[in-house]
Fold this protein.
Amino acid sequence: MTGRASALAFPGRLTAAELTEVTAALAAHAAEHDQDGSFPWPGVRAAHDAGLLTASVGRRFGGRGVTAEETVAVFLALGEGDPSVALLVAMTQLQHALQDAADTWPTELYERVLAESQERPVLLNAVRAEPELGAPARGGLPATTAHRVADGWHVVGRKAFATGSEGLAYHLVWVVTDEPEPRVGHVIVPGDADGVEVVRTWDHLGMRASSTHDVIYDVVVPLENFAGAPIGSVRNNPPLTGPLSLAVPSLYVGVARAAAAAFVAFARERVPSSLGRPIATLERIQTVAGEAHAQVRSAELTLAALAADIDHGRVRADDLAVAKLLTSRAAIAAVQGIVAAIGNPGLTRARPFERHLRDVLCARPHPPQDDAALLAAGRALLLPAPASAQLSKGPTP
């Protein structure tokens, strides 16, 4: 494949000022997309224009990949602006990183994805959950099937929680074949193919602009769009240990950052007639601000330490699981404390606090969920594996 580094690679390391501009571009539309659940194309285009959708394209495909340190900085900024957009970017970057780690896309199709990505946002995501199964992180086989036909694979089934559904250029649909010896894996389905129907089921507490709807598939795709593996030969939900493992935790800490910044502005501007001065002068409000700062800063430091470990190839999968739990708890605690201190103004939709609270609560369902993270940590302590199995051999997606 010919190199396209200038067009596709992460455009150098974005400066703090450049990241601030991206945050502002996303934040300008976040409230309206949250209110009506519309697809956040302005924010997605801003991320595309900053080179972020293709930031994780590997060197052999014309990119340069991203470091974990860059990943944290970017997704803190994106999450602070609009976490729904940040999640769409994270899912797209992850698919590029996975392709770099192990070729799963047909060569010509991936070349087309990269070429299209030079002209417009090209969103990608793995679509795995199902109405009956739920999220597959805890095991189980999909009900969605791929049946071999003369001109490829006939994919039939219904998926749930398909983040980005309305805007995905390509769906990587988790299926099982109906062959005598079944295989499981992701089949690549173009989002605009005949037989792909998005059902607008997403009516969620938070992350309302993420377009996490159901999708019904009754579509035929080329034979080369599926490269499965025998059932039981691959892990159902292998943990991420590379830079992109920090994207989702970072974006939710970004939400807490946004809430803390909004609280500072509110406290400085709010002058009750009974007080005659800004509430920012009150010790109680100063304590709330300090607590929120401490929670956010603890999460940022956790992310920074893990990023350094990943970039030096010494990360442990159980550390990443615990870090997701710790950063999520810190982000949620920060926003909850702010909203509780403000009272009614914190719950009115005229202000951003209730949106930040709804969004940050959505950190919990992302894998690994708290109980799974604690179980993994406990097993690592009580039933330790050999040291060679605990440490990753280097940064992976």
